[in-house]
Amino acid sequence: MTADLQRALRLVPVAAAAWLAAGIAIAHTDIAPTIAACAWCAALVVLIAAAVVRTRTTGRRLVVAVLALSLAAAAATHVAAAEPARHAAREVAAGSGRHVEVDAVVSGKVEPRPSGRVAFDAVTERIRAGEQVRRTAVAVTVWMDAGEAGQLDVGSAISVAGSVRDARPSDRALFVVSAAEGGLSLRAPPPPILLVAAELRRGLVGSAAGLPGPGSGLVPGLAVGDTSAVSDELDAAMKAASLSHLTAVSGANCALVVGIVFALCAVLGAPRPARVGASALALAGFVVLVTPEPSVVRAATMAGIAMAGLLLGRTGVGMAVLSLAVGILLAVDPWLASSLGFALSACATASLLLLARPLAAGLARRMPRPLALALSVPLAAQLACGPLLVLIEPVVPTYGVVANLLAGPAAPAATIIGLLACLAGPVPVVADGLTALAWLPASWIAGTALTMTSLPFGAIPWVEGLAGAGLLAGVGAGVAVVIARPHGGRLRGLVGAGLAAVTGVVIGAAMLTTWAAPWTLPPEWAVLACDVGQGDALVLRSAARVAVVDTGPDPEALTSCLARAGVHSVDLLVLTHFDADHAGAASVLAGRVGTVIHGPADADGRQTIAALVAEGATAAPVHAGMTGVLGDARWRVLWPRAHSRAYEPGNDSSVVIEIAGAGIPHSLLLGDLSASPQEGLVRDAVWNPPYDLVKVAHHGSADQYAELYRQARPAAAVITVGAGNTFGHPRAEVIDLLGGIGAHLSRTDRHGMVAVWATDEGLRVWRERDGVVPAD
User: Of the four listed, 131, 198, 310, 416, which is most buried by Cβ atoms within 10 Å?
Assistant: First the structure.
């Protein structure tokens, strides 16, 4: 390791120690005081040792250790100090029946979410639950309908009434509050300085709104991070092309602002303290203008430390500055340890500091040096951030580096001109002119994103979860070694061979479960019974619209089934009831489903629905007689009865639907109904037998009303059941019943996945382990 690299990495342990302590403390708040006490004691011992040590090198190392332990202790202390207030707020909400009234101050941008909802962070002032009232300051996230958000912005004082659910234990937000209709009221506008910033942002959005094409909505995003005008299509394209970081205001924007102000002061002949002071003021104003997102705070802190070093005449090494900034931020806000945006920002900066130069040198051996320099920056960021990004979505953008190479030069121009347009808001003629100029590079960026996502094979499927992140990190390290090391050498050859082998195997396996997976199913399928073990999960498809009926108990099994079916988003989710074998994997669909219909919900069911709604779904209970469409097919609810209290939430209140049309056979899906409600369904005479397909109730249990199946006269029947289950499902008498009425029986425990569709020649059934067979 070179001396320069050693100096660059000397403060990395500071960031690592603070991050580790903060991560453990927020995940296990009960041991945060212990972590803090141990770290403070260790810091004191090391400080004493540093005071008596004689050698310069050892003294420096001990100083670094003291700094690392002190920031780790500070992070844990912060968590321990905040826990009493968080615990008190948690107790109030827990005793509220999950309904609260909250007075709070908006602390984060109001950002759009799917299905016409918005979300924002806030800090509470008062929490009321029933007769209990607690005045305390804790972080919460609020979800509400966009139409009721009005002119809310950072600093607004609000009152919110609605339902509440717990956030993840490691989140800064203690609760997620879903505002009831009409449940939000504005108590006070933001303070004057924040109100001015909000008006400037809104002015830029309004100025850009009159410009044509998708680039108009991108101008505020590039300049001040306001993505409210970015269309869903462009947002998806920016993410798919690895360009979404351009609208997440971070280090590049802060560097531009500080650099321009510093350079202007230098041209004017200002002394160094004046340059630094002016740059610091400009940076503070910029943070207020764009709102203090984690990446902005990280970049601003790093810039502040760098300016302090410049003022003292000691320009620090980039990685040392980054490490110190990360450590300080984690001490001030330990919950940043669980922020993926903060991690991405730090990794991207570190990659530019450590990887860009050696990658440029390696690429320059094969291409012109200017091109190598241009490629090295997005390539370094892609290699470093890729492992984190696959935790969000397990794909690797194929054209991400090329997209950044093309869009990168336009970003600074759009950012600076757009920022000037924002500041010129009080003079509309100037603001509109500058916005029009910023529109040109913004349109280039938007066009690049849309073009890249229209190309074939735009994303390489990858292994999910931590295993996929670790594997991609290894691949990224291999790519860096192959590019950066000189030609020849055994290590380079071995790494290259291993890299080729691993990449080939992973991509091949991933294709079999993603791109190529739909090729393993009959292209005509309309109803798909997933093999999810002892549980129900069916997928229905009509005219490119998709419904999922129940999710089964296993998230991995449901994910695999949807991937094989080529399903990425779900238009309609039917949760027949909320037992784990029917709704246990509902979390897989969070953020991917448009509408949820369901039967009577118990406490667990309400929690499941709230989680889906919080990620953008709309939800509604249903009862017999309600109808809807799925593509060109029509569905109708047959059970439960409206306003009936005869059956508690659970099996006997399962949602039963019939559906038919556009290739979907006339189907009856019975949930987990037992014999008694099955008899009630027949007596109500709300159904329309005979049926082409029946999904047998309750995994083929013995508790069936035989007359229902005789009248239904299905050509085919499917039993969703787990192999070797302990319930003895499906029971022999049920199999005999179905055989006696001539139903073609398929069962997922023996046949695996089952697909059914209607043709002009009749009903067709495909079994994963048998192939296609006629069913009539």
Answer: 198
DSSP letter for each residue of 509-524? HHHHHTTSGGGGS-TT
Structure tokens at 465: 């979860």
Helix (H) or strand (E) holding 41: helix 32-52
- Residue 243 has phi, psi (to 5 degrees) of -110, 0
Most confident of 57-66, 67-76, 299-308: 67-76
Is 142 in contact with 104 (CB distance < 8 Å)?
A: yes
CB-count exposure of residue 271 (10 Å: 0-12, 13-18, 19+): exposed
Q: Quick: pLDDT tens for 28-42.
A: 999 999 999 999 999
- The residues pairing with 214 across neighbouring beta strands, listed in sequence order, are none
Helices (H), 53-114: 56-94
pLDDT tens string 324-369: 888 998 999 999 898 887 888 788 878 887 888 888 888 888 888 8
- Residue closest to 549 by CA, chosen among 576, 527, 520: 576
Q: Which helix (H) or strand (E) holds 488?
A: none
Q: Are 95 and 129 in contact (CB under 8 A)?
A: yes
Count the neighbouring beta carbons within 10 Å of the beta carbon of residue 750. 14
Token pair 């760098």: residue: 306
What distance lies between CA 507 and its chain's CA centroid?
23
Q: How confident is the model at residue 7 (pLDDT cuts 50, 70, 90)?
A: low
Query: What are residue 128's DSSP bridge partners?
Result: 101, 133
3-state secondary structure at position 245: helix
State the DSSP H helix or E strand holding residue 145, giving kind and residue range, or none if neither: strand 139-145
Amino acid at the residue 650? G
The mean of the pLDDT values for the chain is 84
Q: Which two tokens stand for residue 15?
A: 């960031």
Which strand (E) or helix (H) includes residue 199? helix 192-209
Element housing 656 (H / E): strand 656-661
Q: Are 176 and 612 in contact (CB under 8 A)?
A: no
Look-up: residue for tokens 């549980």? 535
**Residue at token pair 């109500």:** 684
Q: How many angstroms separate the CA atoms of 280 and 659, rounded?
A: 64
Q: How far apart are the first and last CA of the chain?
A: 74
Cα–Cα distance between 36 and 87 in angstroms, integer? 19
Sign of CA dihedral 427, 429, 435, 438: negative
> Comparing C-alpha atoms, which of 132, 101, 13 is closest to residue 62?
13
Question: Looking at the DSSP assignment, which residues form a beta bridge with residue 396?
Answer: 460
Pairing of strands 459-461, 395-397: antiparallel
Which of 260-264, 328-332, 482-486 ranks highest by mean pLDDT?
328-332
CA 591 to CA 575: how far, in whole Å? 16
Q: How far apart are CA 211 and CA 598, in angstroms?
A: 43
Q: What is the pLDDT of residue 6?
A: 67
Distances (CA, A) of 141 to 79, 106, 116, 310: 19, 9, 17, 39
Among the listed residues 593, 596, 591, 537, the one whose alpha carbon sits nearest the alpha carbon of residue 565: 537
Q: Which two tokens stand for residue 544?
A: 């490119």
Residue with tokens 């990685």: 319
